[in-house]
Design goal:
By secondary structure, this protein is an alpha/beta fold. About 60% of the residues lie in helices and about 10% in strands. It starts with 9 loop residues before the first helix and ends with a helix.
Amino acid sequence: MSEVRRSQGWLPSLAAGLIIGAVEAVLAIAFAAFVFGGLLVGRLGDGIGLYLVAAVLTLGILAWRAGSRGVVGSVQDAAVAVLGVVATTTAARVALLAAETTTGDAFEPPDVFLTVIAATLVVTVLCGVVFFALGKFKLGNLVRFVPYPVVGGFLAGTGWLLLKGGIYVASGVLLPARLGKPYLRTIETLMHSFVLQLWLPAFAFGVILLVAVRLIKRPLVIPAVLGIGLLLFAIGMLVTGSSIESAREGRWLLGPLESARWQPWTLRALSDADWSAVLGQWGGIVTAVFVAVIAILFNVSGTEVVLHRDLDTNRELRDAGFVNVISGALGGIPGYHALSLTALAERMSVNARVAGLIAATVPLAAVVFGAAVIELIPRMIVGGVLLFLGLAFLVEWVWDKRKALPPLEYGVVLVILAAVIARGFLPGVVLGIVLAVVLFVVNYGRIELVREVAFGETYRSNVDRPPAERAVLRTRGNLVQILRVNGFVFFGSANGLLERIRKRVEAAPLRFLVIDLRRVTGVDSSGVVAFVKVMHLAEAYGFELVFTGASDPVRKQLSQGGVVESEGIVRFEPDLDRGLQRCEEGLLEGAAAEPLVVAGGSSDGLAGMPPGLRTYLERRELPVGTVLIRQDEQPDDVFVLESGRLSVETVTREGTRMRLRTLRPGVVVGEMAMYTGVPRSADVVAETPSVVLRLSRESIERVEAADPALAAALHRWLATTLSERLGESLRAFDALFD
């Protein structure tokens, strides 16, 4: 798919660009009113100029860099909500310092406005650096490890801050950050008739905008409602006979503004701002960046859905980082991909690059023409937009998610939101981080990290034993417990593992407990303590604890905690196969199982061999290391191990030798290849001095010609051997993959 988006012509692109630009200008003005209200209301015009320029840069640069992929950018609300708290707190601190400074002091207090500009610069540039670093080092998915309900709690808290900001812009009354008596007094103030008539229309406008967006799922609904709102406000002024001057005096308009032009305030902020006050807000700054990172990842994912295409998250992060570094250096606020504006360009089938560049001219024109136009914008529209954004977050996470999320996760969202309302955003963030850890522990602790595998009939080592020994192992299989552990063993899962072992030990006698650690990635101190307690159980109940497959780091952790080899109590084996071999040998020793010798000196395993076949067998003695069968050679014979021990080995692609199976006396080897005619699949090597009985293809042909009944018995014997091995393999696979 080409990256260049097709356009239906210049007129749709022009229309889409003008609509996007108008919405963006209103957003920039609303965000400026949110950040530069209160102590800085006298500099609101300068703040609007800065944020309008940020809108120009965000629209223009993202149109240039990402417009070919259909992306439209915008200054964003998520980080601005936290940035407003940072700005208000910083301004209050600097204003307090200025009030304490007497006129006779030689010290000149820092400029409050420039200090807020410095805080904005730090937040936005830091957002850009973090975005770019995440994209550069391909860590775009890193932040997605934050639990979904914790993210929801942050966004719901962001919605609350925007809701407060909307009421403040409309009425000039700011709700305190924490619950208490001042909070209740502020609520009383908001209920006064004069104040109520200022913020209630804005609240109603925000609700209408929210309902319209939820019911009429069309990209043009936002600009349409904004246009209708402006029209109704103008009609209301005409009906009531209100003049522009009376509307200003009644706080219905943003004006009067001294200026709305952009100036290089960041250069002055470098020298005249109170940087100690800025750095004192490091918690809020980090929170703003964190919220921005979460929000941009959500927006990029949503943009993929809107555009019906995959986007490279890391590339989008790099582009957004570039935008924010430039915008922040000029005093702008964070900006990145905008879902609604991208959807508008997509639905109108316009070239997003062209539409974005045209849109950038609208806030640019507002900067050029200055305060004369901007101060006529109704406060109820600007405040209503902020209220709409806040209500959208709150409704999504408090109402829409009530049935979509499990009760525990939904409760986490509500708890974080309650903390933000009661104590402020930063305490809410701290609580969210704590809850993220708790959720991780609870959810990870629920994962079944231990799988039991039945020993004996179902699963055993790769030592191929004669029928008598297999029968002994089947009867004593309940004395062995195999546990295969996966993942990271930590305090949330270690206790469950310990209790599981304790119940098994107390329920029935145990001779060996095999704990396979091959898939364990690490063990924390609580996990090590749990294994120490298991070691004490082994000593108390008289069973042997066999650890298998432990990696060097895990083995080192266990050793440092006191889990070391001890004769008859703890044993470490390199893999599960060797560990099971150790258990089998221990069980056979305990049962005093010895090979029974039948007539002719053969072992018990040869008892199933058809009578009369021995005269056709060739006896061979093999010194240690003798290769009986070579991999890839043609099969011409079958062997029966009379005494000693053989090893079935293969060579890996890396050139190393790997043991597949160990053969004990009475076992047949090589029968499958001779039946199928395919080359040998592995080497068979004598581990100890051994004696084998060879049955060649020629001998089998002589048996078939001379004694058909003996030949039939021979083939039944070999077929039975094959079926038993196949059945054992299938049972083992079922146990491992169940």
